[in-house]
Amino acid sequence: MSRSRNGQVIERRWKSGRGYALRFLVDGRRQYLTLGLEHDGWTRARAEEELLNVMADVRRGIWIPPARGGASSAANGKDRSAEPGAEVAALPTFHEFATDWLARREGEVAPRTVEYERWALTHHLLPHFAHTLLDAIDIATVDDYRRAKVAESDRRRTAIEVGRPLRAGRGRSAPTLRPLSPGSINKTIDVLQAVLALAREYGHIADNPATGRRRRLKASKPRPVHLDAAEPIQALLDAAATLDADTRHRMRDRHAIIATLLFAGLRAHELCQLRWRDIDLTNARLQVSRSKTDAGRRTIELLPILRATLTAHKRRSRATDPDDLVFPTGTGGQREKDNLRNRVLQPTIPVADRLLAERDHPPLPRGLTPHKLRHTYASILVACGTDPATVMAQLGHTDPHFTLRAYAHVMRRVPAERARLDVLVARRSQHTGMGTSGSSGQSYGEGESTIG
């Protein structure tokens, strides 16, 4: 990219081939002039020479932008619009360029990454920048976006506090719009930075205004939220069994779902898609075959407690053919991750907190989600003496950092606590009542006994 006194040569790639354009300032306003394609005879040297001519005209005050469609502009006594492909062309808008950028990402990065980037663009960046030309996005514009996201997050939080939450659609069944954390806002700015980085490489912009810490919010490091002791894990299982036994609730598989999240470390979508053909109870294995990544496709060795739980769950289930879902909805359909969070886990937490209070233990940590139960599985494996490489393989991770953090955290626990975790998962039978075989009103299989 060549520059000359407030002007520069830009090399671009159009659908019809590679070509050149000029960008320069006239009376403080940015102008963009398309020159032509290589197969029309344009080269970098010729474009640089044209830039010198145009900037000379600008300094003399005689440059006039050619109109779209071939209107001429006088410069040095000749019609520059007669040059191959010469026209004043608008830069792509952010919407146009970001759409193309995202399409190029397909197949280059993990599907979940593309899914997140599409979410960040659709729900956050495009509503703010959609019709903005790329070169009109500057530091002030990025800062405006950041402030707008903070204000939006405050509105969402206030609406929830007054009992009138904003929703992502019409009707009370539409998902609640929850406040964005500083870290979440920063991640959307990371996507903006990535889009503008490519725009800079293509010569559409001179600098990337989304770069740097000053464009981000100060975000505290998120506190780890997972269960790393036997007592809260047992309480959560007991609470799920209590709700399963309550005739006021139609759902009867909370205990099995939560046990699978805790003791197999499945992602939400992996659990929702799980079918009976994926579970080999005889050999204590669970096959994850429909994950979106190569690392995600894995074989999980069932812990004794989970093998017993799934065996009992299969005996109670009506549909157990190989292609039947292990955890269908009440109508037989596939669950969604929101269903796991809102209908399975969230109602269980206050019951578990009550049980913990009765047992003189602190309540469950705030922010517990189905995905955090996956983190709990890592802690359990470490407590049971599993080496970090095997933990990574069982979780379907390729990045060792999370596994090593979990390893360091659990190993700081006193040996007695690690031993209690080991005893919990090693049990080959599990009754998840509230202390006695009759307290929950539900049996989980012949010969099952209480853990407490």
TrEMBL record:
Query: In which domain of life is the source organism classified?
Result: Bacteria
Per the database record, which ranges form the Tyr recombinase domain?
Answer: 222-420
Query: Region annotation Disordered: residue ranges?
Result: 317-337, 429-452
Keywords assigned: DNA recombination, DNA-binding
* InterPro entries membership: DNA_brk_join_enz, Integrase-like_cat_sf, Integrase_catalytic, Integrase_recombinase_N, Tyrosine_recombinase_XerCD
Compositional bias ranges of the Low complexity kind: 431-452
Q: Name one GO molecular function term.
A: DNA binding
GO BP, sorted A to Z: DNA integration; DNA recombination
Can you tell me which family this protein belongs to? Belongs to the 'phage' integrase family.
Recorded hits in PANTHER family, A to Z, give: PHAGE INTEGRASE-RELATED, PROPHAGE INTEGRASE INTD-RELATED
Any idea what this protein is called? Integrase family protein
Species of provenance: Conexibacter woesei (strain DSM 14684 / CCUG 47730 / CIP 108061 / JCM 11494 / NBRC 100937 / ID131577)
